[in-house]
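Let us practice reading a record.
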Amino acid sequence: MEHQLSDLRQRLNQLLETEPRLRARDQAPRLGVSEAELLSLKTGEDVIRLEGDLKALLKDIKTMGFVMALTRNDNVVHERKGVYDNITFYEGPHNMGVAVNEDIDLRLFMNEWVYAMAVIMRREKGGDLHGFQFFNARGEAVHKIYSTPKSELSGWAAIVEAYRGTQEPIMISDRSRPERDAEIPDTEVDVATFQEEWRDLKDTHHFFGMLRKHGLSRTQALRLAPEGMVTPVDKLSVEKVLDRAAKEEVPIMCFVHSSGCIQIHTGRVKNLKWMGKWYNVLDPAFNLHLDTEAIDSAYVVRKPTTDGIVTSLELFDVNGEMITYFFGARKPGKPELKAWTSILEELAADTSVHA
């Protein structure tokens, strides 16, 4: 093991000599290891491995006050500032939890939360960042939390002391992602029943259960959707949608998921900016960084509810994996904002932007 670690450290130093600005998430695949393994090489310096009840730890984050929560997948980063509060966990095999606040709004799938580390990120400008990073069994990040200038670092220190674990580098033997289930042939799907159940939906939260019942992937479901419920649109429609939402001050909801967390922003967006292939929201409390080259398809999707039709813009990569999706801001019992419906329906009706 010591030989492996020494070799990894040497290769990391060589990589950083040639590409000093390369981020840890991008360093890891270049070195053939996971992000968790790479980060844990610094154990004993600015990284402290944590152990214990991670549900209790998340509830303790409240003691840090105002922080930044970060959830990402391969193609998009979602950053939201606020206070961790109002966290509830539920019994059962799915081991789920929620944090329901106006700012920090999360859906937590705790079976994926395996490794935890406290991290100090040294910065020349703006001061050091104190945070926590959580990883699944494959060493992929599921969620990260960082301090802000308003944070109480005494809270961070107390959490580290309470959950300090064995200080050894992480070694993972199997980093392979589970293979996606192969789509069943369309001919084996009871399309008529599926379409009827879609038209009879009462709540957007029932959509995933409907797909699971029929054994459908999300993109297959969109392909087999009832007439009028799904419209393919241009891959870069997100720019047009967010630009109008910003100009018309229409509050949105933006969802981004990792394997163990869904993070949601609700509110207006304002400062939209391209940086190379990345399309960004750069607002004080909410940042989004979207790799537009990863978008393979985009759809306007309509789901019936007891409050009327709910309309979303959904983006997928070439493998049919969800990248991110957007709704108009709404609460149960309230109809969708007419201004949001107009933005998406005008997009869907514009044949010049269809995929």
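A brief commentary: The longest strand covers residues 141-151.
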